[in-house]
Amino acid sequence: MTSDFPNGPLSEYREKATFDWRKLKIFLDGEENIEFTSHVLKTLRDDPLFHREWKTESLEKTRENTRKRWQRLVEYDLLGTRRGAPFDEERSAVFQRFMEQYDVGLAGRHGLSTTFVPSVIMAMGTEKHKPLLEALRKNEIVGCVSITELSHGSNTKRIGTTATFDNGEFVLHTPDIEATKCWAGNLGQSNTHAVVFAQLHIKGICYGVHAFVVEVRDRLSMHPLLGVTIGDMGEKPGAWNGVENGWMVFNKFRVPLSSLLDKGAQVSPDGVYRTTYKNRQEQQASSLGALSTCRVGLVATGARAATMGAVIAIRYSLVRRQLSLNGKEGVDYLQKHRLFPIIAGGLVVSMFHKCFHIHFKKYMERLTSGEKSPSLAALSKEVHALSCATKPVSTWMGARGLAEAQAACGGLGFLKSSRLSELQGDFDAAQTYEGENYMIIQQAANYLLSLHGKNAKTPMGSADFLAEKMQGFGGFSSNIINDVIAAYRWLILYHLDGAKTEIRKHLSMGTTHFDAKNKVQVNHCQPMAIAYAELTMFRWAFEHCLEAREDLRGVLLRICKIYALANIEKHLSTLYIGGYCNGPEFGKRIQEEMAEAEDDLTIDAASLCDAMAPPDFFLNSSLGASDGNVYERLCRGLQRTVND
């Protein structure tokens, strides 16, 4: 995937680039990962089953193809687990991210069963559950996580499904239609096991939500077991039809005592409940950490959505001939301003995710080891808050970036062969699953509110600046990036103080604490959490850029600059309203620096796309192929529809 591109319309831009795209790709992905994904690419490209056509398939055909491809991936055993190789979490994550660029549905089915379900079992289960981990990773069984119910989505505390202790077993039951489990990926037709979240009842006492891993289908016949009813959620947009999201109802379904994932809470055969947690809050923090795996991964999903949209639109914009002088190609200023912030967002958030993933891996190692300590509890809260802030901001960025990229391609962007409409159908849903964005970002705001007035440092350092005093704009420094960081810190502190003040005011008027918090979401809590996410993603990515070799640092810092300026510009009204700055100087300088950075990036745009783009076989776009032969490719497609 680092071989030379053929000579074509994009060659002149590649020749002018200030950096070697291969070196940037190695910095971003790593040589070992590139070697591995090149092997995956060759394997799939050489297999006709993985070739695709630009036409709409029926629901049945989509699912048939996804099942066949999934089975073929199992046969290829690209991760080596079926041959006895130990499970490599890093390699699995690389494979998952790479496959998502090919087909979100296929990647989703694979990742749910081999990565997400095992991570939940590892974090919440004990030694007796390990055989299930191996079976899942070898695809001997297929798993899903079943949390969401028809009327209980993000509000997990109100889950209606019950697990009642009875004579040495648990009885899973769905008390009403609103407690129907739904949206679980793989459940519709293919899964055999489910991690089910339910309210634990013992001798008339409810101990809150606990997780149980249970077999729900016979492994040979694939029929639901007695006491379990399973169905399919129905047709959906994009590649999600291949995921087979399902619904499930329990009718006094008996499961063994060993089904309880009991790392922090055990039930004896005679029904005695024991827990090592001090309180419900500590237990919930542990569960939240275990469930953060998929949410942390979705941060990278938003970055990939933005990247793929930007690559297609930028490559097309570099070669298209509409509205150009003398028929020469080029990216005009409006097009740069539309597209460069999107690709900058894709790269910055991707680099942030690389750093966050390292923190998260260490956190999960501590969590799965059984550690219970104040420092781990503090880290759990920060991991949860940061994932609850960055997942919404990243997936919003990806969805909006794809829509803007499609519009920037004009009418051709709406052809199926551009893949832009398909990508929107594939990625839009990420705004709602693993926590609906508008709901979970409130949890990040709650975390910041809980730190107000405290001088304690946070384990990952994402909120250390909250102990600082608010300082208004005192003039520009020699580095605009430092100026943006200072503005962001003031902005978050401004919203934090504003939220606290408004909440106190509402409470003094007799408003409940719940309603008081709701009243400050729009003007303070949500923008505070968004700013917290943007600042942390930018700051971590910027620090990562400084580790790059010198010949790459220039383009990486330009990208960081565009991301920072594009996002702080959205907050200008609050910076002026709140008194951080006055007069035109601050706002004008932000806009001028932005225009200059976008102009400077132009000669590097093609090579930047080359370093970030998936291979053409995966991207599968008539507008975004690496050879730049847009019109030839479009004409070949049009010739298939010639009237007789």
From TrEMBL:
GO terms for molecular function: FAD binding; fatty acid binding; pristanoyl-CoA oxidase activity. Residues 482-639 form the Acyl-CoA oxidase C-terminal domain. The active site is at 434 (proton acceptor). Keywords: FAD, Fatty acid metabolism, Flavoprotein, Lipid metabolism, Oxidoreductase, Peroxisome. GO terms for cellular component: peroxisome. The keyword Oxidoreductase applies. Belongs to the acyl-CoA oxidase family. It is found in: Peroxisome. FAD binds at residues 148, 185. This is Acyl-coenzyme A oxidase. GO terms for biological process: fatty acid beta-oxidation using acyl-CoA oxidase; lipid homeostasis. Pathway: Lipid metabolism. It comes from Steinernema hermaphroditum. Residues 289-449 form the Acyl-CoA oxidase C-alpha1 domain. Its cofactor is FAD.
